[in-house]
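Sequence in, structure out.
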Amino acid sequence: MIIQSGNLLLSAQLSALEEEGKLNILSKPSITTLDNQAAVIESGDEIPFQTVDDNKVQIEYKKAVLRLEVTPHVIEGDTLRLDIVTNKDEPDFTRTVRGNPTVVTKYAKTNVVVFDGQTTVIGGLNKQTDQDLDYGVPWLRDIPGLGYLFKGESKGRQKQELLIFITPHILKRRPPMTMVPNAEVEPVPFQ
């Protein structure tokens, strides 16, 4: 079947990229749901936020998670429509309000039609981090004219892209169990 060989090729390519250090597979979760019923997977943390109301300090929590919600609809025998919603929340401690981090949200919603066992990819959940670092020997780096001998600068940029691969499978009906006439079954002792 073409779909199965395509998935094997994709799996091999992802494994090769991971071995080269160009890819990090975060997890391979699996979930089962019914037709037209949403399935949800979340992974992340809850970030505490301090609020003050009537001179009372309260701690509230905000989720900072990667969330995937998929609702499958079987169209025909081996064809599915998937309603997919992804949400990625991350705390940003470089931008705070009263010491509380800002929560950066990335959101994607789509509908796709796939065959049983076919893989679809959700992308666009990107992150770019820029770093400017000044370092040096205290006081000596501030000397006019000679300070450059005692200080340095470092700049860096890191790009990350989160790709979510979804491979739905329609569960097949099991054949009914048949009883063998006059079969003897030995009891299993309870432990």
